[in-house]
Design a protein that fits this description.
This protein has helices at residues 3-7, 15-31, 77-92, 110-119, 134-143, 191-200; strands at residues 44-48, 53-56, 65-70, 97-102, 127-131, 148-155, 161-167, 170-174, 180-185. The chain has 6 helices and 9 strands. A hairpin with a 5-residue loop joins strand 6 and strand 7. Helices cover 34% and strands 26% of the residues.
Length: 201
Amino acid sequence: MNIFQMMDFTKFVKWPLFLGLLFVIVGFSACGPEPLDTFDDVQVELTSHRGEVLQFPDAFAGKPVVMGFVYTHCPDICSLVAANVKGVADQLGDEAVYVLVSFDPERDTPEVLANYAAAFNMQDEPFFFLTGDPETVAGFMERMRVRTEISYESTTESGTSVYFMNHSDKIMLLDAKGRLMVEYGGSMTPPAMIVEDFQKL
């Protein structure tokens, strides 16, 4: 009498159910997480705060990307988005590329973005602050599902333009193939959470 006869597993296990469950577990472990978007249709030319002309997403292929969306005149959450991306970089270093794209290209020139990057100590690689021509940026924001709208605009007596924008609050985690894996509330997500998800990739 072998051990299987002694234990008579059929009293305890419904074999079709057991094998089905085993197949599901193995399948999930083998496939890993599914991307939310592949961006196969996206080829956008943008300019960095260092004056580099880059093709997104090809320029970042081969490394995961942590990407946020900002405008430099933002009075509130954009600085938190930038700080959170910097917080992820402080933990991961050059294991990833860190990209912040402006949705205000008429004001956020490469020079303006360079000053903004320096304020966060993000002026050097692997950081990229990106802008482009208004039509390209508008199309890119629509594709990334980043909504923007000027909510207030005025000119002071001295001629200074004052404006505010309503906009999406977003950070994306892309894998090394440029596929969207996770989306976050950009200003409210702790960097440690993004780092944890990054390590699962």
